[in-house]
Specification:
By secondary structure, the protein is α+β, with helices and mostly antiparallel strands. It is built from 12 helices and 13 strands. The strands form 3 sheets. Strands 3, 4, 5, 6, 7, 8, 11 and 13 form an 8-stranded antiparallel sheet that branches. A 3-stranded antiparallel sheet has the order 10-9-12, with no helix packed on it. A two-stranded antiparallel sheet has the order 1-2. Helix 1 crosses helix 6, helix 4 crosses helix 6 and helix 5 runs antiparallel to helix 6. It is globular.
Length: 412
């Protein structure tokens, strides 16, 4: 059975998620956590065509081991408001006469249990159930809910597309699982720093050819426009009462002379940011699956640099294009054993699981680059990227629901 803690966590996570992320339409969820005799779900009442969730099969995500549907399951699927259909993103409209349908506790329990049971047979469900802490008080509630959340969001995806995502889950839940030899045996890739790992991705290297990606080509083709948009953003920060949008977004950067004008945080736009001043930059950046870090303009002061470090996520790549570069190529980045120097309008594409450091050797000129973190489209499938973006979005909303302070709170 699903524990009350997990049900409350699902309620909290989906409540916050419905406010800011597409796809999850459970818009009026509430749970009474104070010991009342019954907990209530409030779901928007549906009108028009009502589409049932697809029948269970062995070919899709969350498929069960058999096709027999019990009377109890049929009763659950026909319940008013149909929570399972709601989780599957079916169109929802509000009734003019009634604001919602009230679910009693027994119906709530049965619906969540049915969803959890079907999702448990997926590769991701098996990864969670086989984790060391599964079923114990120390189990991570978010990962315990992940199979159900992903099954509801991607009900028709085939299981053969989920194995590497399931590998990510296994590594997230068991820090003792060994990493692939390509990381462990490479002295330039500090494997102890790896914190988000998807096994089975193709062999990587410190720098990749930027010509492989349309993102890099578009950025270089539009360097003059992007530079003007950067200047417009700078001008917008001048004057009394204006906001300085440059920030040191990690503790390491405070003493390293590096600040970022953040355009995107955790893959999504920032409230009240003047995107109308940088439409071309914004459009190009949104053409790729932005990752759960930052994207924006990085400033590096003269005679300063970022110390040696690695970022520990093998699912992301970083692209940087020179916007303002000191004369005589005096600004560089070293990734692993290789060093590259920035040039205006040229992109550098690299893997930050390798140790890397930067330096601006100029005595009087700052270095400005456009920085984009994105999911590795060279190695991951579109389905894997969609699922991982969803996971990161849900994780952020779950943390908000749990009251966890985030590094970028001042940005958001």
């Amino acid at each position: 059975m699903i524990s009350s803690t997990l049900k409350i966590s699902l309620t909290a996570a989906t409540l916050f998620y419905s406010c800011s992320c597409d796809g999850f339409m459970l818009s009026n969820i509430g749970a009474n956590n104070r010991g009342s005799k019954s907990s209530l779900f409030l779901a928007s009442k549906k009108k028009g065509n009502k589409k049932r969730p697809p029948a269970a099969s062995n070919s899709g995500f969350g498929a069960s081991t058999g096709n027999t549907i019990t009377k109890k399951e049929k009763s659950i699927r026909k319940s008013k408001g149909n929570l399972l259909a709601t989780l599957n993103d079916e169109p929802t409209t509000k009734s003019k006469s009634k604001k919602g349908v009230t679910y009693v506790k027994s119906e709530q329990d049965a619906m969540l249990q049915a969803l959890a049971e079907s999702a448990s047979f997926s590769p991701i469900g098996e990864a969670v159930s086989n984790s060391p802490l599964h079923g114990t008080p120390d189990a991570d509630p978010f990962y315990e809910l992940m199979p159900s959340l992903i099954a509801s969001k991607f009900p028709n995806i085939s299981t053969d597309k989920l194995h590497r995502v399931a590998g990510f889950v296994r590594h997230a839940l068991d820090e003792n699982l060994p990493l692939e030899d390509s990381i462990v045996s490479n002295s330039f890739r500090p494997h102890d720093d790896i914190h988000a790992y998807m096994p089975g991705l193709e062999e990587t290297k410190p720098f990749h050819d930027p010509a492989q990606l349309e993102l890099c080509n578009k950025l270089s083709e539009n360097i003059d426009v992007i530079e003007k948009e950067y200047e417009a953003l700078l001008s917008d920060m001048l004057g009394k009462g204006k906001k300085d949008r440059f920030q040191s977004v990690t503790s390491m950067n405070y003493d390293a002379g590096w600040k970022t004008l953040v355009l995107f945080y955790n893959g999504h736009r920032i409230k009240d940011f003047p995107y109308h001043l940088c439409p071309v930059t914004t459009q190009i950046m949104e053409s790729v699956p932005l990752a759960g870090r930052i994207a924006g303009f990085n400033r590096q002061q003269p005679q300063s640099g970022i110390p040696l470090h690695s970022d520990g996520n093998n699912m992301w790549l970083t692209c940087q294009m020179g916007i303002k570069v000191p004369a005589n190529e005096k600004a560089y980045i070293r990734v692993g054993p290789d060093t590259r120097r920035w040039s205006k309008g040229e992109c550098l594409l690299y893997d930050t699981t390798y140790e890397h450091e930067t330096m601006n050797e100029s005595e009087d000129e700052e270095r400005v680059v456009l920085h984009v973190d994105f999911f590795n489209t060279l190695a991951m499938t579109p389905a894997e990227i969609d699922i991982m973006r969803y996971v990161y979005s849900m994780r952020e909303e779950f943390m908000k629901a749990e009251g966890v302070a985030k590094v970028g709170a001042q940005i958001l």
